[in-house]
From TrEMBL:
Binds 2 Zn(2+) ions per subunit. The gene is gloB. This is Hydroxyacylglutathione hydrolase. Transmembrane segments: none annotated. It comes from Paradevosia shaoguanensis. Its EC number is 3.1.2.6. Thiolesterase that catalyzes the hydrolysis of S-D-lactoyl-glutathione to form glutathione and D-lactic acid. Zn(2+) 2 binds at D60, H61, D133, H171. Zn(2+) 1 binds at H56, H58, H114, D133. It is an enzyme of class 3 (hydrolase).
Length: 257
């Protein structure tokens, strides 16, 4: 396998990731939520940071850039559409453009909505997908800047990837996402199974990522806004999928469970 991914906690509920190309030794931090957490993970692995790949401009994903550039001289790659909002970018990328980490090739996928220029990074050979705050385990990001239709289209692009794809998302929100998903889709057996697994993992203090895309397609309501059953659950039979998605997102924003 060309790419190894190290998963660790950063800040309060962020996930940090190191993507290590075994053929060349190049190592990228996926986002830079916290410099100390990234340095600790590097020390534990014995890797040297060469790159940072940024998904979007929010502070809890970029705060460590300056310190890591100072200490490692890294190359920072990020979304061209948010270049004016992220200090320290060296390489700008957009949807469909190639990106390499040593011998590992990444595809850039547009996932607007959480922020307008949000992107995801996909290693097709190894089936690693870094989604930032666009797609979470059993959920999706809040729609801070975008509108429902483009965000739904971005999630469909992610949904179209192979079922064995491993999803590495930006935050540990899975237990809360599961509670909302069960409120929307209480008879979904795949969801019930996943929710039980999540509870077991969290009680043991373990991470709930990566999740597999195939499981998300069956259990995550935000990837099923075009499912008539989800539309019916939202009281929107016959509505456009993006309208169902908008109702799902609004419901999650207001959910108190």
């Amino acid at each position: 396998m060309t790419l190894i991914v190290d998963v660790f906690q950063a800040r309060q509920d962020n996930y940090g990731y190191l993507a290590h190309d075994t053929q060349t030794g190049r190592t990228a931090a996926i986002d830079a939520p916290e410099a100390l957490a990234i340095k600790t993970a590097l020390l534990h692995r014995g890797w040297t940071l060469s790159d940072i790949f940024i998904t979007h401009h929010h502070k809890d994903h970029v705060e460590g850039i300056a310190e890591l550039k100072r200490d490692f001289g890294v190359t920072v790659t990020g979304p061209r559409a948010e270049a004016d909002k992220i200090e320290g970018l060296d390489v700008l990328v957009g949807p469909g453009e190639p990106l390499a980490l040593g011998k590992t090739a990444f595809e850039i996928i547009a996932t607007p909505g959480h922020t307008l220029g949000h992107i995801a990074y996909f290693d097709r050979a190894g089936l690693h997908l870094f989604t930032g705050d666009a797609l979470f385990s059993l959920g999706c990001g809040r729609m801070f800047e975008g509108t429902p239709e483009p965000m739904w289209e971005g999630l469909k692009r992610l949904r179209a990837l192979p079922d064995d794809t491993l999803i590495y998302c930006g935050h540990e929100y899975t237990a809360a996402n599961a509670r909302y998903a069960l409120a929307v889709d209480p008879d979904n057996l795949d969801l019930k199974l996943r929710a039980g697994q999540v509870n077991t993992l969290r009680q043991a203090g373990r991470f709930t990522v990566p999740s597999r895309l195939g499981e998300e397609k069956r259990a995550n309501p935000f990837l099923r806004a075009d499912d008539p059953g989800i539309a019916a659950a939202m009281g929107l039979r016959g509505a456009e999928p993006f309208e169902v998605f908008a109702a799902l997102r609004k419901g999650k924003d207001e959910f108190k469970g």
